[in-house]
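Sample intake sheet
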Amino acid sequence: MIYSEKVMDHFSNPRNIGELEDANGVGEVGNAKCGDIMKMYLKIENGIIADVKFKTFGCGAAIATSSIATEMIKGKPLTDALKLTNRAVVEALDGLPPAKIHCSVLAEQAIKSAIADYYTRQGIDPTPIVGKIEEHCDGCCDE
């Protein structure tokens, strides 16, 4: 499998890796069967993602998509973070092999899951704002 320089950079030097002790939004998505599990930690202040960290168990593409996704939402309003699509993640990495596209979907879903957790902690039903969080595997388990 051939990866772009950006994928290799984010895999070798992941940004925003770790846990946030004071996170007020935490989301975890993935599937142990696939081998990719992402946990996203958000520190949200006044509707802005003040800080973000992630922990990913998975392949290089999973780590790279988590890393670049955190860079894309850090400092942004929640409304912008909710608009982040897996396509935008793939484009920011200069592409991913077809068999690894599910990693970008996991990154998108992990962010949405963390934002949903934030709203739940505020006593707000997240579903109308965030939508349904899909457990997404997209056939990757068959590889």
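Comment: The two ends are 13 Å apart (CA to CA). DSSP finds six helices and three strands in the chain.
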